[in-house]
Amino acid sequence: MSDALLVLVLLPPAVGVSLLTAGRRADRAAAPVAVTVMLAVAGLALTVASGRPAVRVPFLAGMPAELSVDGLSAVLCLTVTAVTLLVLAHSAVEFGRDESRSRFFGLMLLFAGSMLLTVTAATLPVLLMGWEVMGATSWALIGFRWRDPERTEAANTAFLTTRTADLGLYLAAGAALAADPTGTLALRDLPGAGEPWRSVMTAGMITAALGKSAQLPFSFWLSRAMAGPSPVSALLHSAAMVVAGAYLLLRVHPLLEASAWGVPVVAWAGALTAVVLGLVALAQTDLKQLLAASSCAQIGFMVLAAGTGAPTGGALQLVAHAAAKSLLFLIAGAWLTALGTRTLTGLSGAARRYPAVGALFTVGALTLAGLPPLPLWGAKDLVLASVFEASPALYAAGLAAAMVSALYSVKALWFVWQPVPTTAGGRGDGHSGTRRVPGRALPPLAVLASACVASSVLAFDPARAAFTRVLGSAPQPAPNTWELVAGAVLVVGAAGLAWAWGRRWAALPATAGAAFLGRWLRLEDAARLAVTGPVLAAARAAARFDDRVLDRAVRGAGRGAYELARWTDRRLETALTSAVSAVASACRSLGRAARRPQTGQLHQYLAQAVAAFTVLALVFLLVK
To answer: Distance between CA atoms of 449 and 453, rounded to whole angstroms?
Structure first.
């Protein structure tokens, strides 16, 4: 069973890297290979979900790498593999032959593998590896069409924003190591750390999770991520990466409780994001931007569940949202290809043009709206039942967020079900596009829509009790009858109001408040003002210091050394040369003088010897 877990996390990235290495030569085989691999991985996910294996392998000295599957990670493994498989099957139809299919499918497999590694990681080093690869791969996927500068800038914005928040995970790992230098950095051991390290770990985990899940104040990066292909958005926003932060908070809930202050911070962060980003979604005029903002809002409910100890509601919210959001993003991409637009006004009548796709979109949108008896209605009520016990104010915020969900979901529905607009010549709405949705694209969409409907049973007993047992969590408060009725009345009322407003939605963006919300609260501008601007200003100041001070000092030192060398060459070098020449001349003269007595004639040597002895005798006599 442990081998199955290792293959589960290693097979997708291994095949993904192989496709990336093969390049355009593998374009023809990329799609079937990727789909086949994910079919095998889905089978492995079923195996490990039922067997719950754990793997421990050597990694660093005294710090092994651990993978394990419990109830929560089993649900995530199944969700990630199922959604990835359906998205890849749809992408095989959507991506044309002129695009680098091997690069796309290779990156998607690598992305899915990193998410599977993240959800099965039992130690911080393994979690960090999956977390990092997921972030880097998301950058490559968002900027997949890199020849467009706007797309690469969007990818950079998304990557740098999440990377800034990811520093919190490194901070948490450092604090865990400081708290227990000989420990394995296992996630299960984190709540037992002493202060202040426990608070440092909590702060780091919360920051990293809020950044990855695009919660306030990091939400704006998800807007820029819409520059990526629609299948990327369908996977990234539904079952991978964006939900990774919420999953992490659900995973480390014991740490949040141990720190005391972590629970209310996480709960209010989720509640505020659910309300505020719901209003942002309501103000959007672009379908993909509406879906992106709704992802932040819906994941806010998962974060709220993590903060209030509602794992069953949070996990059900995650599963239902994954099915609905991947369905809606794939349909948005199909309509963009067919009609050449993704604005709500441009998509007027899209559901009537393509009735089958429109019916599937309706299922996804009503699920997202949280209308009974669809699963997000039951999931939200499960979360709110725990929230009500924790704080009535949080409960009110959750109800408000649920009503806003109905408003923006039905707003999108109203536009796509309007009569098909025609120009004076009767040739359509004037947008360019293929004018067709391939029939082969429908089966994956139908499966996702069926999942939206089928998962509704998980919100009610006995399926809910069974789901709780699968998660292995303690039973959480069930919603009272009045809570179910009140929630249903409010959501249905909000949906009816959204439909009744009808054409008022077209005039909404003209208002100042809607324009502010439509630009995602200008969070990116605030980030530039508070973070990017000061950092760039400091970088420019450092560059000026480097150019004006350090460069001048270095150049001055160089010029001084050059002038010293020239002076040495002119003065000292000449004197040294003359001295050496004089010594050499003297040596030559002494040599010549020394050679004169050496004539080779014995009588001269005898005379020289007599003269020498005579001199020695005189010296001896004088000295004595």
So the answer is: 7
Give me the helices (H) in 455-521, please: 463-471, 481-501, 504-507, 512-518
pLDDT of residue 432: 63
Torsion angle, alpha carbons of 15, 21, 24, 26, to 10: -30
Closest Cα to residue 163, out of 133, 193, 194?
133
Which region, left, alpha or beta, applies to residue 62 given φ > 0 means left and ψ of -120 to 50 means alpha? left
Cis peptide before 462 (omega within 30 of 0): yes
| Helix, strand, coil % in the chain, rounded to nearest 5 | 80, 5, 20
373 cis-preceded (ω within 30 degrees of 0): yes
- How do residues 439-473 score in pLDDT, each as one tens digit? 888 999 999 999 999 999 988 888 888 999 888 88
Residue type, 113: G
- Residue 426's pLDDT is 39
CB-CB contact of 211 with 220 (8 Å): no
Q: Which own/partner contact pairs does 341-345 have at CB distance under 8 Å and 24+ positions apart? A: 341/429, 341/431, 341/433, 342/286, 342/287, 342/288, 343/285, 343/286, 343/287, 344/284, 344/285, 344/286, 344/287, 344/290, 344/411, 344/412, 344/415, 344/416, 344/505, 345/285, 345/415, 345/506
Cβ(246)–Cβ(213) under 8 Å?
yes
Which residues of the chain are modeled with pLDDT < 70? 96-97, 423-434, 507, 509-510, 512, 624
Question: Of the candidates 7, 11, 33, 35, which has an alpha carbon nearest to the alpha carbon of residue 22?
Answer: 33
Q: Is 123 within 8 Å of 66 (Cβ atoms)?
A: yes
- Between the CA of residue 136 and those of 111, 160, 242, 243, 481, what are the distances in Å? 9, 10, 14, 16, 46
User: What letter represents residue 257's amino acid?
Assistant: E
Q: Which two tokens stand for residue 413?
A: 């529905």
**Nearest partner of 314 among 233, 390, 381, judged by Cα:** 381
Judge if the upstream peptide bond of residue 217 is cis by omega within 30 degrees of 0: yes
Q: Are strands 63-68 and 54-60 parallel, antiparallel or unpaired?
A: antiparallel
Alpha carbon 355 to its chain centroid, in Å, reads 35
Place of tokens 């003088």: 593
What pLDDT score does 624 carry?
62
Confidence at residue 423, expressed as pLDDT on a 0 to 100 scale: 56
| DSSP code string of 185-226 | -BGGGGGGPPTTHHHHHHHHHHHHHHHHTT-TTSTHHHHHGG
Q: What is the pTM of this model?
A: 0.86
Nearest C-alpha neighbor of 434 from the set 499, 520, 341: 341
Go through 313-331 and write b for each residue having 16 or more CB atoms within 10 A of its CB, e for each that does not: bbbbbbbbbbbbbbbbbbb
Number of helices (H), then strands (E), belonging to the chain: the values are: 28, 2
Query: How far, CA to CA in Å, does 564 sit from each of 280, 549, 559, 571, 579?
Result: 69, 22, 9, 10, 21
Per-residue tokens: 67: 């993978």
Reduced to 3 states, what is the DSSP secondary structure of residue 121?
Answer: strand
